[in-house]
Amino acid sequence: MPDDILALINASVVDGKAQEAADLTRQARGAGLEPLVIIEQGLRPGMDVVGERFSCGEAFIPHLVLAGRAMQAGMRVLEPELKRRGEGASRAGTAVIGTVKGDIHEIGKSLVGIMLTASGFEVHDLGVDVPVEAFVAKIRETNAQILGLSALLTTTMVVQRRIVEALTAAGVRGQVQVMVGGAPVSRSWAEEIGADGYAEDARGAVQEAKRLLAGISSANAAASHL
Ligand code: B1M
């Protein structure tokens, strides 16, 4: 039964059927499947299928749009529960997230935001196509410890580097840990542009954000012993 319903969820995303994706997600939750299992084994793989079809000319932009809407419809079913879990968790820290300028892919970034919220982070999601200066301004305004930058295109990855440079120029680089992610991004890219962290997926992003926060705490503790 679990495998069947996950396969149906996958197919509803591939076919771009938002209502069906939402109904099946509700059904899967009712059958006791964990939200993350539904996302990682049902909704997300459907997007990969559509992406592969797009790469080889078997799917087109409207298919990507519809698949995206279907995945988001499923995520909307799970989001309230995931957020409630975050309210029960102890406050982990503050994070600003967004998809960089020139890039309108929002689903992975939103998933990272939901997962961080579910783990007790206060998340300020700036949305998609976010100008470099908006990230800098939000870090100043919120004093967030974590800045999460998403980029899904090889052409927009470079904007992540520009944001790291802009933080330095604005004199706020030392107060925030920068984490980068998105399909074309890698740990070696993160190192090359001077980011502090990288994660491959939303679950990894939570672990990485916590690791970066722990680094800040131990640095503060060491400084207070000087
Ligand atoms: Co676009 N698109 N798209 N697209 N799209 C990709 C990314 C692509 C790989 C498809 C392909 O060719 N196979 C390709 C990029 C190629 C490249 O540059 N390497 C591509 C292209 C080319 C384009 C356009 C240029 C197409 C065109 O117009 N000719 C165009 C660009 C528009 C723009 O941004 N300026 C475009 C447009 C779109 C739509 C708007 C139609 C739609 C997005 C809808 C929306 O977001 N509301 C879309 C979609 C749906 C996709 C695919 C099919 C799916 C993306 C997705 O949502 N995946 C994608 C192919 C694919 O990824 N298989 C594709 C599900 C999501 C949960 O995963 O976003 O990878 P993902 O996020 C993951 C991880 O990457 C990671 O965790 C997330 C959750 O596990 N992660 C982070 C993401 N951000 C992170 C941040 C972190 C840490 C981890 O820390 C801060």
Task: Give short descriptive properties of this protein.
226 residues, alpha/beta, 5 strands, 62% helix, globular, binds CO-5-methoxybenzimidazolylcobamide
Structure write-up:
The protein has 226 residues and is of the alpha/beta class. Helices cover 62% and strands 11% of the residues. The chain has nine helices and five strands, in the order ααααβαβαβαβαβα. It has a five-stranded parallel beta sheet with strand order 2-1-3-4-5, sandwiched between helices. Helix 3 runs antiparallel to helix 4 and helix 5 (107-118) crosses helix 9 (202-224). The radius of gyration is 18 Å and the shape is globular. The termini are far apart. The relative contact order is 0.11. The model has no long low-confidence stretch (mean pLDDT 94). The structure holds CO-5-methoxybenzimidazolylcobamide (B1M).
Task: Please describe the topology of this protein.
Layout: H1 2-14, H2 18-30, H3 35-55, H4 61-88, E1 93-99, H5 107-118, E2 121-125, H6 132-142, E3 146-150, H7 157-169, E4 177-181, H8 187-192, E5 197-198, H9 202-224
Parallel strand pairs: 1-2, 1-3, 3-4, 4-5
The structure holds CO-5-methoxybenzimidazolylcobamide.
CO-5-methoxybenzimidazolylcobamide binds next to helix 3, helix 4, helix 5, strand 3 and strand 4.
Helix/sheet category: alpha/beta
The dominant shape is globular
Strand order of the largest sheet: 2-1-3-4-5
* C-alpha end-to-end distance: 59 Å
Major sheet size, sense and barrel closure: 5 strands, parallel
**Ligand catalogue:** CO-5-methoxybenzimidazolylcobamide
**What oligomeric state is this?**
single chain
Strand fraction band? 5-15%
Order of helices and strands, N to C? HHHHEHEHEHEHEH
- Average per-residue pLDDT, rounded, comes to 94
Which percent range fits the helix content? Answer: 55-70%
| Overall number of strands | 5
Given the structure, what is the number of helices? 9
pLDDT < 50 stretches? none
| Cα-based radius of gyration, to the nearest Å | 18 Å
